[in-house]
Every structure is written in C-alpha cells, then in structure tokens.
Amino acid sequence: MNMRKVIVSEYVTLDGVMEEPGTWSFQFWNDEAAKFKFDELFASDALLLGRVTYQGFAKAWPSMTDEQGFADRMNSLPKFVVSSTREAADWNNTTVISGDVPEEVAKLKQQPGQQILMYASGDLMHTLTQHGLVDEYRIWLNPLVLGAGKRLFPEGTDQITLKLVDTHTFGTGVIVLSYQPAAEQAET
Q1: DSSP state, 62?
Q2: pLDDT bracket for residue 1 (50, 70, 90)
Q3: Average pLDDT over the chain, rounded to whole?
C-alpha cells in the first residue's frame, strides 16, 4: 500500500526567514507562481496546519472566491489543525488534532488519498521533521533579505540531510527548491 505523503510548502527569504510571508512575498507573485500553487493544491486532498496558520486561513479563505476554483478547493478540503488550546474549529471540514501529533499524522499518512499539504506552521513542521514524517519540503526561496524574523530551521535544529528532487524558477526571481529526506534518514 502506498502511503500518502506530507508535503511542506514554505515561503522563505534568502536569510532563512519564514515569518509573516504575507508582508513580503506578494511582490514576487506572478502567474507562474499561481499555477504552481494551483497544481500543488489540486494534487492534495487534505491540509495540515498549525494553530496560528489555521487561524489566519480560517479568517481569510471562507470569504474568498476565484474563477479557477482555488478558493473552493481550499474551503472544501478536509483540514487538520494541530492545537493544544483550540477545542472548536470554525472552518468547515476541520478536525482538531490535540493528542499525540506524530502518531495522528502517521495515521493520516496511512489512509488512502492524495498528498497532505502543509503551509507555514513552522513549529508543526519541526515536530514532524523530528519524527521523520515530512516527505517533501518545497522551499519557495524569495530574493529578499529581511535581517530578522522566525527562521525556517531555527538554531538548535538537528542536522538534516536532504536531496534535491526538483526546481522551478519564476520570472520574479523566486526559486522553488523541492527536497526529500536523504535515503539514509528515510528509515529512521
């Protein structure tokens, strides 16, 4: 049986900052990026989000519409939000994961379906990385240095060896670098 893959899609600056991409990434948005995001979303049939990202998305997405169907897909997909403080989820099709997060995500991966897509959610990404549950990191490297902010991999992160599996370069200077865990780590 093929296991579903957890795909992490992260906007990052050249100096590794991933915090608040809504304040700096839009200047690099274009049709190429929109198509990539569209294809990424439609190759997935579930969203996995940390509490902070979920709260931001839950405020914004329910009122959005577009002719391509991106907003409908975002709103209709099953969503899994990891939270120790949030009992009720107010965005349709949401399940709260509050127990053993690695165990629950491992169970999700064993269910039949497409990819499980995760946006932002740095703390959750670190937890899943530590437990070998991230199958692919899509790093949207933006041609910008911020100088401060929450890093994608903060100081103290264990060494991780990855292999580059794909790249996409957009006319705005954004490069999407797709990495998978190196084979020697895949067994852990």
Answers
A1: G
A2: low
A3: 93
Tokens of 44: 């997935």
* 149 to 45, 49, 65, 156: CA distances (angstroms): 31, 20, 31, 16
Identify the CA nearest to 134 among candidates 112, 107, 116, 111.
Answer: 116
28 in Cβ contact with 175 (< 8 Å): no
Q: In what helix (H) or strand (E) does residue 157 lie, and over which residues does it extend?
A: none
Given a cut of 80, whether residue 11 has pLDDT beyond it is yes
Contact predicate 18/146, CB 8 Å: no
What is the Cα–Cα distance from 144 to 60, expressed in whole angstroms? 25
Question: Whole-model pTM above 0.85?
Answer: yes
Nearest Cα to Cα of residue 118 among 11, 35, 2: 11
Q: Single out the residue of 88, 56, 94 nearest to residue 75, CA to CA.
A: 94
The average pLDDT across 29-38 equals 96
